[in-house]
Design goal:
about 110 residues; about 25% helix
């Protein structure tokens, strides 16, 4: 499945499901575990992925408008690598006040 996880619930999700954290690059701070940069994940398959979205990807999650990702081929390729090749699930860490469009919000009580 594909899920959005509030930042305040990220540790619970991480401890419960043991996903591989992914980030655009080392500028992304506050990432749990041993993160892998999007580009370094190319060709690798993980059971579960926990993606820390950068600004443009976060805009896509908030609006549901993929066009907000922009036209840069390298950005599109890195996001594609980050999202694909998960066997069970992909989660996106979002701000606590975010209301992602078209993605189920993880509830730690479930």
């Amino acid at each position: 499945g594909i899920f959005a996880v509030r930042r305040s619930d990220a540790r619970i999700y991480f401890e419960r499901f043991d996903p591989q954290p992914l980030r655009l690059d080392a500028r992304t701070k506050g990432v749990l575990g041993c993160p892998v940069n999007f580009g370094a994940a190319k060709g690798k398959t993980y059971e579960r992925k926990m993606i820390y979205p950068h600004g443009k990807l976060l805009d896509v999650l908030r609006t549901g408008e993929v066009v907000r990702l922009g036209q840069a081929p390298s950005t599109i390729a890195k996001v594609y690598v980050a999202i694909t090749r998960a066997r069970q699930s992909v989660s996106f860490i979002v701000p606590d006040d975010a209301q992602p469009k078209g993605i189920v919000l993880f509830d730690p009580k479930d």
